[in-house]
Every structure is written in C-alpha cells, then in structure tokens.
C-alpha cells in the first residue's frame, strides 16, 4: 500500500503492522509540523522553556528548575533528549549530565501534550503554554501533590523568562472514565463537558514527548466499538501498551455537554469575544446536528486516514471555520458568516495589508482564505488598523458581537430545555451567566455602557473637546475628538452626548477614551466648569474607580447586585455664590453651614452627582439638582444601605469656586452621621436644618422617609405629636444651632417626663416638657417667681402620673422614674448656654393654690367635649352655666384671691378617663388640653378685670 493512500484497518480481515506504522508516521509527521510551527513563533527564552520541559519531567536534578526531591515522580515514557536539549540544560547548570534510566525502570510520566492554539493559525506571541501532564494512574496522593508542586516551580521559572506556562495533571485512567481532576474544573465553568474537551484535545494537542494517543489507531468507523477494538489491538500485540495512552473515545456526545461548553465560551466571550464567537458557533453547529454530529476531531482523524495530511487544511481553526462556514451558508446567515470571518482574521493577527513580520505559512494560509472571501484592500486595512480603532468602529463592532453572544445564550437555553438536559448544576450556571451577560451588556437608566469588551487594545484620545450645548431648548454636553474651537464643533460628530457632564466624563473614563494623558479644549457655556475643576473630577474618578475593574466573582453574581463604592461630586459646574465671585468677594459669617450659609441662610449644595460601582462591576451615574439635592441623595444612599444591610464605601469631593473643601466635608460628615443613626438598631430619627426649614429623617416600613418642615413653628408642632413608641431623636450638628430647643431635645430619655425652663426677664419664662415618649410641649408664660412658675405644672404632671398608675399593676409602678427638672442658663464668659439639673421641689398644699380640676367627656354627638370644672369642691358644669362656664369659674377664683392678684390660673388636675379609659394617652395629650382650658379660663379672667 502506498504511504499516501487511504488506510483501512479491519480486525476481521487482519491488520498489517506495517500499516499501523504508516498510520503512526502520518500522525507523527503532522505533530512534528505543528510543533515546528510552535517553535518558529517563540522567542529565544520561550523556546528554551518549551525545549527543556520534557527533560525537567524526565529527571530530578537539584540545580534544574522544578526540583522538589529525588523521589518526586519522574521519568518520561519513550523520551530521549537530543544534544541541543542537553546543551540547553547544561547552560543552566554545568554539573548536569543525562543518564538513561536503568532496565526495569517504569516512567511515572506517561506523556506531555501542548494544548490550545499552539502551532495553529491562531497562535500569537501572547499565547501561553498550556500543557497536560499525563501521569501514571498508580501515583498516590502524596506523589501527586509533589508532582503538582514540581509543576508550579517550573511555572515560576518560566515566568522569570517572560513565558506563561500552565500545567494540568491528568490521570489517564480516571479521565477515560469521565472522572475529572480538580485541575480542569475551571475549564468548564462548573458544568461537565468531558467529551467536548476530549474533542478539542484530539484535534489540537501536540505531543511533546511520551506516549501517543491510542485513539489515533482506531478508525472513525470503529469509534462506536472503541473498547473492543483497542482491546484487540493491545491484546493481540499489534501495539505495545507502554507506547500508547488511552484517554477515551468520541462515539457519542451527550446533549448536556453542548450547554456546558456553550456556557463556558459565553463566559469567556464577555471579555474576549472574538475567540469565543468561533467556539460558540462550533457548539451551535454540534447542537444543531445532534445526535448525528461528526465532531471535528473525528473529521481530523478521517482526513489523516484518507491520505497524507495537509497541515494547513487540518489546522484546528481552519477546520473549525470550514464547519461553521458550511453551516451558516446553508442557513443563509451571511451577516453572521462575515462576523466569523472577521473573528478568524483578527484571531490570526496576520495584517495582510502590510508586509513582513509574519510567518510565511501563516500569511499564505490567510491570503488563501481572504481570496476566497473576496475581501478588498479597504476591508483588510480596516481590520489591520484595529489598534487604531476609535469609538465609532468599536461601538459598531460591539453591537454585532453582543448580538451574537446574546443569540447564543438564548439558543443554549432553548436547546437545553428542549432536550431536557438542564440539570441543577446547568441551571445554576445558566442563571449566573445570564447575570454576567446582564452586567456586561444590559442597558438601564444611569448605567455606563462598556463599549470595548476586548475589541480594540486602546481607545484613548490624546486631544478631546468638552462642550456645553443647547439643543432644542435642552442643555447637554458633548465629547468630541480633537481640540476644536467653538466654530468647528458643529461640523464634527460627537463621540458621545449626555445631559450632564459627569455622565459623559464617567463614560469616557470607563471606556478608556479619557486617560491620564488626555488634554481638553473646554467650552463650558453658561456653566462654571473650569479646567481646574475638570482635571480634579477626572482625578477623583481614577482614584475611586481604578482600572481595570476587579474580577467579577461567582459569589458576587450569586447575590443581587449591591453598591460597593460611591463617589459624590458636589456642585459640578456650579458656583454656589456667583454674586460673590463676580465681585471677587468672600463672605465672612458665623453661619458656616453649607446648608444654611451666612445670615441669608443660603444653601450652597446645589447639585450632587453620584457615581456608584456595584458588586457586578456596573458603574451607574445619577444626578440630584436643586435645593433638595443633598436630602434626595442622602435618602437614596441610606435606602441603598438599608436594602442591602451594608453601606458602600463613601467618598465626597467638591471643586467649585467657593468653599469647596467645607462643602465636601459637610456632605461627607452628614452622610456618615445620618447613616450611623438611621441604620442603627434601634433606629433613631435624624433632624437637620436646610436654610430656615427642617428635614426629619426616620425609618418607616423598611425605608428612610423624610418629612419637610417649613419653619421652627412647624417643627415644634411635629415634635409635639403623639407617638406609638419612644424613638430617639438625633440632631445634626448644625440643626437649631445656638437655640434652647436643641439643648432640650438632646436631653431626651425614654420613659421619663422632663421639665425644662428658662427665665427670660420681664416676668416671662419659657417652659418645655418632654414626655415619656419624647413628644414635646412648649409654652411661653408670665410668672411671678420660680415657685409659681413650676409648682402648678408639677402638680398637674403628678396628677397625670397618678391617674396612669391607677390603671397599672403595682409591680409596674416601682420602676417608674421620677420627674426631672432642668434650668436653661444663658452663656457666660467661661461656658456656653447649658442645662443645669434642678431638684424637684416638694409639693405642699399652699393656701394660695386652689385645686382646680377639669373633667372632659365626649358630647352625645362625639364631635366636641363637655367640660366640668371643680374649684376645690365646688362644681361648675356646662349644663349649669352653658357658654359662660369659664366666666363663672374665673369670677369664683378672683373672689377667692387676696387683692385680686393678676397671676394666671392653672389647672392642677385633668380627667380624660372617658376618652382614655385604659390610661394609655401620653402626657403631651394632657398638657395640650390643659393649655387650651387654661387659655380659655385666663381670657375670661382678663375680661372680668377690665
């Protein structure tokens, strides 16, 4: 039989050993051609690594790389180093000399195979050495661990020579049974794809040294009978078992493997789409032809059996392309076919529009393909200039790549479910991949779109123009290539246009269009954006979100996305004090709060741009405008922390013309202080002042809500409302600054009734009461002396307390706190305004104080109250006196006073049991109703005096 003719091996007709030898030579010649192509593409240092790797596994020499110990597994089957390899080893250590292993020695390394793109049209100077170390299945765990350590040491040594080498330990016996070693779990994104990995191995692997694959010697038409056929070959000694390595066969590929392989390629395609598109389409072809698919490795073997193999046509990537081409042409998918051709051309990296610098065989092979495709010079130049592609070309290419990846995801999902092969593992991986695709490509409000997923190496522009625009009454910002003046802008198409400048700058930075070397022509329009501010904004982006982004982990994708890093940029392009800037003045004021600056109480926080990096590596930009910008941004920030039970890392920056540092410090301290109070357990209320109004933040129904209070009067009304329970109130450092109310509110203690007073002069005093739930009552009143000011109120509070105790068990009364009194003293030379505790006076039955009790009951219509008043023991009722009730009581009291004294009349007891039979009403309810009654009574008294 001629060496170039077709080989057929029929067990029934007998097998000629010479034919088997011819077959082995064909595979070996093709293997040598590929190995030669690998070495031709390597630099001298990388070549040294590849040359020495077989020797390093054959021996254990203390002065050679990878040495662990003399007993570390060694010996490479059938290996005999050539003189060039021995000289290379002696260049590392002159003491080395190789000796043949003694008779009876059993090599523990069966074979070394180079996997991947090596020796193919896709090999580049960046290709790594991905090597399978097939070892003796008899190795125990300790020996295997030692061998793994040896591999790592060789990897480290290769790295010193600028060569990336990775080793995977393979137990052939386990692998042939479909049992996977831990080394390879990262190859399949968590889902099994044993047969497709074996398919790739058989068509791409280059035997460096050791045993050849037994699979070579099994004809395609005997693949389904692989176990019996190989048993006969070895049993009848057509082949020697010590020369061949059995890794299994490819008679049938389970449908579930297409899902696993597709998931992995989609995963890799997010960052490296060109190579993945090719492999994804191959998976699609396999899935479409299932179950009658002939995988590429079988086609490869069929061609070797048919005659002398053509290394070009059997190039793994060329074979892949041919299969995909036939599939797409049959379907009429010419757009997808054009994308596949571009992917192959860019993967080959031959640049046919230029001369030189490329291996002849590679150039000739690609030239042949390009002639078939009928590409013209312009197309070649466009692809060859990929390193110079700018935003427009990259965006256009991205759209097609993303479309292809998402199409593949939908097809995989449909195939898996229609063939009922989506198991629990697949389903989880499918969900994770869906999230990864969503994070990488899904558009949503505020999200910065990443336009360059491994398409062009560099999009940076050295010169850019940033211009404010007015288009159809809408303000916007445009980023343009080059340094343009105002008259040139309209003639150029922007790279990107957005409503707000930070959205534009973040897009440019995230996509590498703007880098540290970029210079700007700035046309700010009506904004106050300066070159100083622009440069600092970009510096803040680089410091807060350094590129490249951290690796997106499976753990992060398994949870809902949550914010990790937040950058707040305050007053971008705005001057909070434009009048001062125009006059070149700087206001000096004791009111330094950015939310209430100077005597005019100006709010200097006019806008906040929030840049957020979340756990899925998405960057989102949101903007808050106007006088409520700070409050809205604060609530959103706190609600994010509340929803995810953790706050993102916060940074705040401001570069506007006036008071930028003070503004940034104020915003940062406000956000941190509010978060500490509102997200704590139990949560507190948080009060801050904005200009002359107030904002009360509190946690309700799992969210932070804000109540706007226009002035201090509205604040006091709100603080005086009843509460279902006590909630601590925390005041922002600038809220109610210098006011007595701030001092009072900071004294609040749950379960206590606290009385505070301040003597104002002119026989006027200010009274405050914080009740047991923190509700506030306040009154300005005339007084004669401190005793007459406090005793009526204290009498009343004790009577309220006594009524409440009547409805409680005795045990509950023991733990009730006494009343507390504090006097507010004005600031002095050595101290600020402060609250000084006062001893609660003893309540005596002084002759000048009448016991005045009021009883209020709902009317028959329940729309009003019917009041009865008892002065000592005399009753005055509305039934008897009608609308003259308060005049009658006032006349009686005045008649009882000596010299008709003008001090006010006080209610000393109030019974509301008809409305509150269980005694649950707060003290503040009693105080408010008492105040209404006293006001009516004292008005009647004043009328009688006139």
From TrEMBL:
Superkingdom to which the source organism belongs: Bacteria
Q: Which residues form the Adenylate cyclase class-I N-terminal domain?
A: 20-216
GO terms (BP aspect): cAMP biosynthetic process
Q: Name one GO molecular function term.
A: adenylate cyclase activity
Output the InterPro entries linked to this UniProt entry. Adenylate_cyclase_1 (IPR000274), Adenylate_cyclase_1_N (IPR024685)
| Pfam families in the cross-refs | Adenyl_cycl_N, Adenylate_cycl
Indicate what this protein is called per its UniProt record.
Answer: Adenylate cyclase
Species of origin reads Halopseudomonas salegens
């Amino acid at each position: 039989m001629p060496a170039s003719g077709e080989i057929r091996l029929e067990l029934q007709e007998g097998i000629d050993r010479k034919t088997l030898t011819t077959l082995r030579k064909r595979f070996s010649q093709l293997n040598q051609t590929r190995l030669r192509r690998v070495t031709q593409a390597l630099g001298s240092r990388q070549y040294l690594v590849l040359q020495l790797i077989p020797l390093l596994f054959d021996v254990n020499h203390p002065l050679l790389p990878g040495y662990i110990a003399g007993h570390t597994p060694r010996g490479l089957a059938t290996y005999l180093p050539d003189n060039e390899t021995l000289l290379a080893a002696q260049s590392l250590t002159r003491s080395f000399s190789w000796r043949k292993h003694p008779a009876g020695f059993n090599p523990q390394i069966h074979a070394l195979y180079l996997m991947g793109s090596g020796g193919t049209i896709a090999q580049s100077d960046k290709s790594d050495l991905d090597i399978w170390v097939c070892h003796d299945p008899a190795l125990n765990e300790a020996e295997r661990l030692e061998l793994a350590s040896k591999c790592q040491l060789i990897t480290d040594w290769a790295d010193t020579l600028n060569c990336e080498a990775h080793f995977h330990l393979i137990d052939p016996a386990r692998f042939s049974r479909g049992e996977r070693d831990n080394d390879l779990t990262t190859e399949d994104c968590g889902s099994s794809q044993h047969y497709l990995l074996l398919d790739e191995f058989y068509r791409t692997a280059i035997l460096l040294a050791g045993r050849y694959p037994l699979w070579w010697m099994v004809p395609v038409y005997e693949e389904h009978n692989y176990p019996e056929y190989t048993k006969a070959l070895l049993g009848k000694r057509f082949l020697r078992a010590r020369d061949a390595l059995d890794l299994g066969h490819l008679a049938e590929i389970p449908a579930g493997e297409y899902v696993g392989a597709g998931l992995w390629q989609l995963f890799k395609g997010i960052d490296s789409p060109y190579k993945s598109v090719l492999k994804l389409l191959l998976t699609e072809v396999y899935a479409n032809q299932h179950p009658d698919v002939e995988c590429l490795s079988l086609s490869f073997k069929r061609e070797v059996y048919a005659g002398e193999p053509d290394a070009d046509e059997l190039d793994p990537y060329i074979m892949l392309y041919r299969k995909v081409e036939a599939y797409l042409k049959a379907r009429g998918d010419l757009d997808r076919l054009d994308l596949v051709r571009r992917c192959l051309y860019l993967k080959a990296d031959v640049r046919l529009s230029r001369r030189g610098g490329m291996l002849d065989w590679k150039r000739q092979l690609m030239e042949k393909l390009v002639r078939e495709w009928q590409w013209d010079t312009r197309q070649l130049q466009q692809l060859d200039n990929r390193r110079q592609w700018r935003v427009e070309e990259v965006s256009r290419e991205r759209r097609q790549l993303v479309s292809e990846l998402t199409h593949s995801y939908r097809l995989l999902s449909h195939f898996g479910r229609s063939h009922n092969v989506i198991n629990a593992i697949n389903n989880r991986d499918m969900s994770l991949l869906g999230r990864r695709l969503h994070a990488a490509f899904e558009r949503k409000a505020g999200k910065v779109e990443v336009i360059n997923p491994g398409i062009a190496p560099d999009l940076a522009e050295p010169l850019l123009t940033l211009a404010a625009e007015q288009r159809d009454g809408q303000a916007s910002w445009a980023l343009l290539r080059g340094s343009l003046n105002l008259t040139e802008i309209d003639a150029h198409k922007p790279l990107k246009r957005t409503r707000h400048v930070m959205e534009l700058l973040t897009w440019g930075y995230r996509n590498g269009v703007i880098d540290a070397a970029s210079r700007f022509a700035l046309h700010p329009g009506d904004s106050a954006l300066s070159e100083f501010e622009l440069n600092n904004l970009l510096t803040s982006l680089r410091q807060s979100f350094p590129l490249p982004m951290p690796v997106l982990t499976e753990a992060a994708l398994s949870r809902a996305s949550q914010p990790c890093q937040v950058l707040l940029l305050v007053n971008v392009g705005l001057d909070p004090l434009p009048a001062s800037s125009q006059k070149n003045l700087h206001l000096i004021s004791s009111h330094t709060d950015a939310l209430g600056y100077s005597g005019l109480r100006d709010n200097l926080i006019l806008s906040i741009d929030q840049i957020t990096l979340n756990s899925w590596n998405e960057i989102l930009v949101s903007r808050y405008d106007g006088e409520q910008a700070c409050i809205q941004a604060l609530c959103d920030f706190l609600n994010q922390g509340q929803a995810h039970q953790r706050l993102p890392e916060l940074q705040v920056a401001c570069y506007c013309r006036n008071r930028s540092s003070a503004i940034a410090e104020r915003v940062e301290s406000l956000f941190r202080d509010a978060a500490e109070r509102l997200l704590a357990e139990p949560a507190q209320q948080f009060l801050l002042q904005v200009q002359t109004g107030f904002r009360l933040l509190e946690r309700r129904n799992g969210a932070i809500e804000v109540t706007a209070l226009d002035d201090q009067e509205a604040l006091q009304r709100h603080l005086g409302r009843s509460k279902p329970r006590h909630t601590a109130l925390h005041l922002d450092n600038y809220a109610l600054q210098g006011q007595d109310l701030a001092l009072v509110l900071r004294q609040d203690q749950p379960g206590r009734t606290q009385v505070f007073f301040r003597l104002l002069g002119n026989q006027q005093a200010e009274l405050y009461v914080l009740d047991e739930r923190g509700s506030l009552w306040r009154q300005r009143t005339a007084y004669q002396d401190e005793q007459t000011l406090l005793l009526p109120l204290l009498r009343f509070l004790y009577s309220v307390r006594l009524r409440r105790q009547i409805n409680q068990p005795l045990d509950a009364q023991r733990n009730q706190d006494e009343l507390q009194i504090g006097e507010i003293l004005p600031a002095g030379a050595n101290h600020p305004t402060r609250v000084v505790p006062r001893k609660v006076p003893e309540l005596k039955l002084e002759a000048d104080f009448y016991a005045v009790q009021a009883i209020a009951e709902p009317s028959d219509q329940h729309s009003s109250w019917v009041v009865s008043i008892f002065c000592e023991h005399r009753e005055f009722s509305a039934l008897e006196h009608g609308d003259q009730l308060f005049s009658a009581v006032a006349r009686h009291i005045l008649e009882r006073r000596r010299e008709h004294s003008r001090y006010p009349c006080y209610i000393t007891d109030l019974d509301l049991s008809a409305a509150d039979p269980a005694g649950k009403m707060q003290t503040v309810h009693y105080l408010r109703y008492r105040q209404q009654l006293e006001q009516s009574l004292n008005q009647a008294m004043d009328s009688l005096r006139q």
